[in-house]
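ARCHIVE CARD
SHELF: 3
SLOT: left
DATA:
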Amino acid sequence: MISVSPLAVEKLKEILVEENAPDSALRILVVPSGHGVQYMLTLEKEPRQDDLTFEAEGLKIVVDNESAPVLEGANIDYIDDLMRSGFVVSNPNVPMGEGCACGGQCSCGGHGQHEE
């Protein structure tokens, strides 16, 4: 459903340790915005009854039923360079020009990508 790069998995596991939440899962939400969609990444102790759950390299991931179809085939990566650092969601299901939900300023790289 969603692929997560090894670097993103490593960074997310570091966050779980920092937050003293080693058994928590990563929740990925898709929220409509004025310019397409916005992605939210949060930690979740218990999945809800209607959530889809899966694992990526030992990282538990939960997605609600409404976000699941939009996230099919998406990829989460972690970028750390001179210009930016953070999680980037690349999503082939979001039309060109609608996937950048950076407050409408699209400085995150454009098509289907959003930094968290």
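SLOT: right
DATA:
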Amino acid sequence: MVLGKHLNQDKDSFYSEIIWASSALILLLFFGYLLGNTWFFFAMGLLVYILWHLRQLSRLIQWLANNEKDMPPDASGFWGDVFRHLYRIQRHNHHRQEKLMLLLNRYKESTEAMPDATIILSKNWEIEWFNSKGTEYFGLQTGKDNGQLLSNLIRSPILWDFLDSHEEDPSFKQTLEINASNSERILSIRLIPYGQKYLLIARDITSIKKLKTMRKDFVANVSHELRTPLTVISGYLETLGEYLKEEPVYASSIDLMQQQSHRMCHIIEDLLLLSKIESSEKRVLKNEFIDMNALLMMLKKEALVLSNKQQIITIEDTGPKWLKGDVNELQSAFSNLISNAIRYTPKGGEIIIRWSCNDSGMACFEVQDNGEGIAKQHVLRLTERFYRVDVGRSRKIGGTGLGLAIVKHVLAHHHSKLEIESKIGFGSTFRCKFSDNMLKSDK
């Protein structure tokens, strides 16, 4: 209703202006006719009318140029409506600008309070804005470095490979860990595209890395320290078992102690293997290639022994002959997947060990079973250390809870990944995917 009222007022002013101007010109024509100089008076009237409009236009320009926040000049008729509407629009834009500035200031305050460095980049990787952590982590200078190319200020080939990966594939979501150039900090960098810009977020993970290193060292040291006394205990238990095997009171207890000591020895061996693999993840793989045909035959023999002919084990080998990698690590990873399938597949079940290439050229090692399957909520946590879906059953069948953690780290060392598909009552498929640069032609 307010808008309709303003429109009606504008129409009234417009019609009033036309009526007023027309009446004045008709009156001038009449006086000119009476005085014998009709067109002179008419021309003078038009000139005065045009000069009046030019005067109002000059006042409008002067008001806009000097200070648009001041009240507009007084004017009557049509120009009064023009001044009033422009003033209303300016006030609306001013309030809107104040709101935007308030939101922008709140955003800057919130990013300043964040513990992460935040850098806004253009599509050409030019720095548009950064918070104080950007200065602390990367040495950027406020004002001076705005508009500069990120490559001119942060010289890191690893970072630029990471940015290129995002430019080539907008769905690329991996993070990058690099050492800060001006300190001993370890930064985790994430790039988030939005519109035609990028938001670079760098988090200081130095303390997290130190804790992980301490944990790795602690596990490795404790495992080394426990292995010797456990070996001694196992040896004495075997000796006692031989001497007391005819004594039923002691035989069952000694047998149980032997089982638990063997289980502890397996856990320690797996922990030592995991520590060894973790320490080698940063080691560059040599150009050594594994004969996959021979490795598959070895894995099948081990599987048949472990299965004791309780499951049907099939090999499907249609993949490439050669795979780049560490044969001991990959054999350990593949063996863990196969042994897990055997443990959790009931008697008479089928296990397929498959080596093939998919449509995208990636080589895949798969272990597929038709066992009981795994619920969806457990799948994402299977590679965590000591994580078990059913703790009691895992202990009963002899699992250590470290097998899939070993697989995960071996594949990370080989720049590969593990995919898990499972459905309750239908079985599971564990798939190791290797990129084409890990393969070698048979020629």
